[in-house]
Amino acid sequence: MKANIFITFIMILTMISPIKSTASIEEKKSSQTHEMKNLPIQNFVIYVNESHPYAIQLLVKQKYPYVNEMTAEYKENRFNEQFEISKFVKEISGTITIYSVGKKKEIKKTTLPINSNIEKPISENYYANNDWEGISFGVVTIEEPGNYIISAQLQSKNDRYKELMLGFVGIYGFK
After folding, report:
1. Which of 25, 40, 68, 92 has the most CB atoms in a 10 Å sphere around its CB?
2. Rounded to an integer, what distance in angstroms lies between the CA atom of residue 93 and that of residue 99?
3. What is the pLDDT of residue 23?
4. Rounded distance, CA 105 to CA 97, Å?
5. Is the overall model pTM greater than 0.70, yes or no?
6. Main-chain dihedrals φ then ψ at residue 3, nearest 5 degrees
7. Is pLDDT of 53 > 80?
8. Average pLDDT value for the chain
9. How far is CA 148 from CA 110, 127, 137, 140, in A?
10. What are φ and ψ of residue 19, in 5° steps?
11. What is the mean pLDDT of residues 58-72?
């Protein structure tokens, strides 16, 4: 009797183990598709010659840029892509740091995704020459002329967009 129970127990274990290993393979695949990937973005140095507030821009190359006389289908694709880019940019994580070369110190560090209670985007839909879309954020006032390094270490779970650009622009108000 004990032998039958033991054999039955072994048979049940052998039947369950392939199911368990298949489930673990599926879990592994699922976790791999959601792991963070480094984004291809270049750091740069900029010379600032005037004291102004500046903002960082994170822009994504559009697949459907603005053109005159768009068809209805193109307009719809463009609208859907703008929504996808906005979603993509909001899901990016990492840091963007501004360093003063002359002072040899960090001026501002922005952590993404942006915590809406701490720092809100200036603009959610910024168009640079109609081919790029993204957000402006991270306002910093540069007090003295000099060279500044803009450095980014960004990751995303989504690798749909490969062409990204960091910008550093002055914010000029109306007088």
Report:
1. 92
2. 20
3. 43
4. 11
5. no
6. -65, -40
7. yes
8. 74
9. 15, 24, 17, 12
10. -65, -45
11. 86
Residue 142 CB contacts under 8 Å (≥ 6 apart), including other chains:
48, 51, 52, 54, 107, 148
User: CA-to-CA distance for 142 and 144, rounded, in angstroms?
Assistant: 6
Question: Does 80 have pLDDT greater than 50?
Answer: yes
Q: How far is residue 57's CA from residue 137's CA, in Å, rounded to a whole number?
A: 6
115: amino acid identity, one letter: N
Which tens digit of pLDDT belongs to each residue from 138-155? 788 888 899 999 999 999
CA distance 20 to 27: 11
More confident residue, 97 or 16: 97
Percent of the chain surpassing pLDDT 70:
70
* Residues 27 and 35: beta-carbon distance below 8 Å: no
Of 139, 149, 142, which is closest to residue 101 (Cα–Cα)?
Answer: 149
b/e map 161-171, b = 16+ CB within 10 Å = beebbbbbeee
